[in-house]
Design brief:
about 0% strand
Length: about 60
């Protein structure tokens, strides 16, 4: 019985570690996607401001 309990504990730890790695990977993926979107939005806003300034100077 003692061995099977140890085996269960080891399996539980392995499963917990794998789940942590998978969840961590998902979190990183989502974070990088959001970061990419934020960078694109920031570039679009910056370009819009620059164009507005150029158009304003043109007039």
């Amino acid at each position: 019985m003692g061995m099977s309990q140890d085996t269960k504990n080891v399996l539980f730890v392995i499963v917990a570690v794998l789940l942590a790695i998978v969840i961590g990977g998902w979190v990183l993926k989502i974070a990088f996607k959001l970061l990419g979107i934020l960078i694109l939005v920031g570039l679009a806003v910056a370009a819009f401001i620059v164009i507005q300034k150029l158009v304003g100077q043109g007039r």
